[in-house]
Design brief:
four-stranded antiparallel β-sheet; alpha+beta; 11 helices; 337 residues; globular; 37% helix; eight-stranded mixed β-sheet
Length: 337
């Protein structure tokens, strides 16, 4: 049995510039962090006592004898990709799916990490990120960028630069005290809405040629945000003000990024004292992030009292194996699938 633990991510700046259609022409860059809410994937070989050869448990249960019958496209394609057979796979998470935290990519990274470990293979973080990008964007043909797979695999607070079909992960150089202050000034609220990121990403992809100006401006804000974080002489509150700027630009990149109900919640947070914020992920719903000075946080909580607040802490580990007990598996006796 293998159990992996893979973190969700918060994307601060540059979202949308990590899509290949954009960064292969203009270059792209994002700042994101992983945090202490996780996807857990358990994988083991299924004992041969049942009338099915593979069992998958997530929001529903699938029991199949032919991989091609599996309805979950990511698991189906991952099993084919790594030639996996006769498995019990279960998915658990600290937060709901389709909420703007990179859930799908986090699952992809954790699943591949577990598969490789079950085969007795160690994969470096960049290899896992690359394989997850290939799994989602090529094999599953889902629209979207690359930052989520990278953040889930590497972990930490990073600037990720994209260019010419590749990327480089650069840790943000920030003192522990300043990083803790940033964490303490961030508030996360669940709006209760969920959406399929790939559908919104597809509409954003179609409009990229019309929104190049906004995406380029969003990319420039990454340099400013990095300087705010790393320069001890800068006022950290400027980070919150910059979040408001990037959110206003983000809303211009696709018709489904925001909706009136989200805008109303965001405006209430700002009027209550938040310096800035944004809807996380591709848009459409999920989690609202606000930058709020400590003395004004109760005011924001009261203004958004109908929403669930989710306290969190930054994490630095990325995906990891938390239980490792591989079994002997006789491949020769696998039934034809």
């Amino acid at each position: 049995m293998i159990i992996t633990k893979t973190p969700f991510r918060i994307s601060f700046f540059g979202g949308g510039t990590d899509m290949p259609d954009f960064f292969n022409n203009y270059g792209g860059t994002v700042i994101s962090t992983s945090f202490d809410k996780y996807v857990y994937v358990t994988v083991r070989h299924l004992p041969r006592f049942f009338d099915y050869s593979t069992e998958l448990i997530y929001s529903k249960t699938e029991r199949i004898n032919d991989i091609n019958e599996m309805q979950h496209p990511m698991v189906r394609n991952a099993m084919k990709m790594l030639d996996m057979h006769e498995l019990h796979i279960s998915y658990d998470a600290d937060l709901p799916a389709r909420t703007g935290l990179g859930t799908s990519s986090t699952f992809a990274v954790g699943l591949l990490n577990a598969f490789y470990c079950l085969k007795g293979k160690h994969k470096a973080k960049k290899e896992l990120a690359n394989d997850a990008i290939y799994l989602e964007r090529t094999l599953c043909d889902e629209a979207g960028g690359w930052q989520d797979q990278i953040a889930a695999s590497f972990g930490g607070l990073n600037r990720i630069d994209f260019k010419d079909g590749s990327y480089h992960v650069n840790p943000i150089i920030i003192s522990p005290k300043r990083k803790e202050m940033l964490n303490d000034n961030l508030m996360l609220f669940f709006t209760g809405f969920t959406r399929f990121s790939a559908e919104i990403q597809e509409s954003t992809k179609k409009s990229i040629t019309d929104k190049t100006k906004q995406l380029l401006e969003m990319s420039k804000l990454v340099d400013e945000a990095q300087d705010i974080l790393e320069n001890e002489d800068r006022n950290l509150d400027d980070f919150g003000i910059l979040l408001d700027q990037t959110w206003k630009l983000k809303k211009q990149t696709g018709p489904n990024v925001s909706k009136l109900s989200i805008d109303e919640l965001y405006d209430r947070g700002i009027k209550a004292g938040a310096l800035g914020g944004k809807l996380l992920g591709a848009g459409g719903g999920g989690f609202l992030l606000f930058y709020v000075q400590k003395e004004k946080q109760n005011s924001v909580r009261n203004a958004l009292s109908e929403l669930m607040e989710v306290p969190f802490k930054f994490e630095n580990s990325g995906t990891r194996v938390i239980y490792y007990a591989p079994e002997t598996f006789d491949r020769k006796s696998v039934k034809a699938e």
